[in-house]
Amino acid sequence: MYDLALKNGFVVTDTEVFRSNIYVKDEKIAEISTDDKEARQIFDVNGKYILPGCIDTHCHFRDPGVTQKEDFITGTQAAIAGGVTTVFDMPNTNPSVLSAKDLQWKADYFSKKAYADYGIWGLALGKLNLDELPALCSSGVSAVKFFWGYAINAKTKALIYNYDPKDTDVVLPPGDGEVYELFSEMAKTGKIIAIHAENNELIQTLTDKLKQSGRTDYEALVDSRPALAEALTIQTAALLAKATGAHLHILHLTSKMGVDIIRKAKAEGVHITAETCPQYLFLSSKDYDTVGPIMKVYPVIKHEEDRLALWQGLFDGTVDFMASDHAPHLISEKQGPLFSIPAGMCGVETMLPLMLNEVNRGKITLPFIAKVLAKNAATIYKLKDKGSLTVGKDADMVVVDMQKIDTIENNKLHSKQPLTAFAGREIQGWPIKTFLRGQLVVDNNNIITNAPCGKWIK
């Protein structure tokens, strides 16, 4: 007898939608068929759609280090509430993930807190941990991240957006020669090297000029961190990836210029992939007057032409998938002057609903969602048990009600500091049940599992 059955649903893959039942045994999808079979637990989904559990490879859950903003319990609860069953946690926590020893410590730490399955990013600091990368990459790290052009706090490993080169308590950004060595080492490991692509020298120069001008409007923020800053870094990184054979991944892509460079690099055979985020697909600078400082993120949300180019890149495969860049701050921190408040907001819980709404608007299809929110990330990060509703895969499933209409509200989110730029947006299409490896963990926005049940994916 099967452990679980979802009956009378429409199964969504990355290529088709068909009516069927899904049967689960030992946490795996065991059968997909129209045959009526017995199971210990049966859910009649009554014609609703069943999607693969979403994968969010870009989450800052702030744990350990700044758990007043978020922790791994609340962050992964927010994830499963939004239909995300697999998350990757970013490495710039305190302590950060610089070695195989750090990785194992964090995996053990998360094992007592995880409500979703999880991968863990490693952090590259140039020559400071170059020798640690082979062991780190062979110990189960999901990928390695490099903050191009940014200094790092020497004690906390927190990112420093604006630094003084004379400071003694910072790890200064590595030069291009050091980055070449990093890419070469990562090519040997076969793991992805992912970059935050902004040219900080250009940003510092432009920011200083804007401060002197006295401008504090949103366009000033965009002017201080323009598309050129992203494009310069992507271009250099693509050339280094081509020279070394490294698999380069561009995080949170924001600009038309960036899309164009990646499209050209892919055509030339460079091993490059890219993601973008909901904030860049659903917002542009014109929304600031309505949304306000909450929408400040880094890289910044740019112009309408950039937003449209990102959608086109997602449609034609230049942009491979979506991730949230979930990065909460204290609600009080996000209420100051634009240039002073921190960059980041909640995102893991609203990503799928925003996309479901686009299906109802006729812009995209459910198979497209299965591709850009599950299948492609699983393929790129080699998650053999994740990413699709296929026999033998983990039974990570999301039942969605495409008729349900509700409004995104901060007080409905599960994060510790619930604040999103999408508050007040009416959405048609919501996840109503989330299954993690065959276990019902969310039912109508309520976390119903009594204990963390997530596992480390390595």
What's the arrangement of secondary structure elements?
Blueprint: E1 2-12, E2 17-25, E3 28-33, E4 39-44, E5 49-52, E6 54-59, H1 72-81, E7 84-89, H2 100-111, E8 117-123, H3 133-138, E9 143-147, E10 151-153, E11 159-160, E12 170-171, H4 176-189, E13 192-196, H5 200-213, H6 218-224, H7 227-244, E14 247-250, H8 256-267, E15 272-276, H9 278-282, H10 288-291, H11 304-316, E16 321-322, H12 351-360, H13 366-380, E17 397-407, E18 426-436, E19 439-443, E20 446-447
Parallel strand pairs: 1-4, 1-5, 6-7, 7-8, 8-9, 9-13, 13-14, 14-15, 15-16
Antiparallel strand pairs: 1-2, 2-3, 5-17, 10-11, 10-12, 17-18, 18-19, 19-20
Helix pairs in contact: 5-6, 7-8, 8-11
